[in-house]
Amino acid sequence: MRALHADADNIRTLFSRAMSDMYRAEVPQYGTLMELVSEVNRATLQQSEQLRESLDRSDELERLSLERHGAIRLGRPEELFNVRRVFAVMGMHPVGYYDLSAAGVPVHATAFRPIDDAALRRNPFRVFTSLLRLELIEDDALRAAAQRILGERSIFTPRTLELVEVFETQGYLTVAQAEKFVGEALETFRWHSEATVSLDVYQQLHDAHRLIADVVSFRGPHINHLTPRTLDIDAVQAGMPGRGIAPKAVIEGPPRRGCPILLRQTSFKALEEPIIFKRDDGTSAPGTHTARFGEIEQRGVALTPKGRALYDALLASARETDGIEASTRSYSERLAERFAAFPDDWATLRQEGLAFFRYSVTEAGAGSGQARASSVDDLIAEGLLRFDPIIYEDFLPVSAAGIFQSNLGSEDQRTYASNANRSAFEAALGAKVCDNMELYARAEQESLQQALLQLKSPHF
Ligand code: OOG
Ligand code: NI
User: Fold this and answer.
1) 290 CB under 6 A from ligand 1?
2) For the whole model, what pTM was predicted?
3) PANTHER family, from UniProt (predicted)?
4) Candidate CATH numbers 3.30.43.10, 3.10.180.80, 3.10.20.90, 3.40.50.1950; the one for domain 8-302+395-429
5) ipTM value of the model?
6) Which of 23, 68, 385, 404 could staple 379 via S-S, CB 3.0–4.6 A?
């Protein structure tokens, strides 16, 4: 009998569930946050029939309760290479290059996520994956020590890598192998309350940058947060204190709008957790480490290059503070004011080419026989063609830097010269990262062609 092949989407769902269960058991506040988010989502859907219908049409409703992203920080190029192979088994591929050195964080990153529409609809689970840039540690001796310590660890269980090889040579895993794989791969992301270094070395690494200590001092890249998707981030932010959770002061990303764009995120502070450190004489020393935090996000429409340029310009102008402005007006007010220049209705966003949309045939269109209208605009005006926002599936570097920073504390604000090094990142990864704009443009184009074909429009 032929062994049953496991489908990559199912492996990803099994894995993201296992990760969520593990994190919920380790960080009880995550469970509380998940409850709050699902209550807010339920209430939001009850209030807006239009939103519910649009999400339903785009098959977004099903995935909403599954949806989350996580983040890990790796120490060595080989770790990045192998994590790419591990995520590939789950249908997750590197999308985008994020340089965070400009923001004072000595890492660069990509996001592993599903890339085709069908897989995204099934489960969009993604992992923001950073690689530490040891070359940014100034002290030679400390850099050499960090390199040596990292060189001694292996973050994957042997069985994980064996199963990756089985997948790569035979092209699939059986259901039984997939279940084993999920359990084994999960180990890489587990929290370790024992450090691999002494308190003294930890302190030196910490003094260089808290993030360096976080990456170098442990056996593996513990998942540092898991983020559920909410339909109303302001409501969740407001509800957090009532559940004993203290959110960070400002929500990252665009302001609240009628038509959500890109991504808005907020987090609660990292927890100080007890850690056992080694002593040279073999005894142990108690200490603490702060790494894991909570985050929530609200996702909106993906912007075209033109829309993204406008977003970046408005955000930069809101963040530019001259002293007087900063003292007299709050950041949120300034943000809202600047973003008044960003159209806030779906029709204008589409007409001006600011955002990506998924086209589909309306009921009237399906029953109308051959369409006569000769342009997309006319088909829409006649009620035969409709468009729904394509959701942004990626991250925002300025927001990511804000999230990193809010968990580092002010004593950890460093400046590094901005020096993106995408080719070094891709060399470590062993692959090129995908261009997210191409993915969105293709999804839009394919939906339009499909709809026009169905309408037998002469436009096609
Ligand atoms: C990752 C921070 C980035 C996001 O949602 O932008 C991130 C980290 O702290 O390791 O997860
Ligand atoms: Ni995040």
Assistant:
1) no
2) 0.93
3) 2-OXOADIPATE DIOXYGENASE_DECARBOXYLASE (PTHR39479:SF2), PTHR39479
4) 3.10.180.80
5) 0.99
6) 385
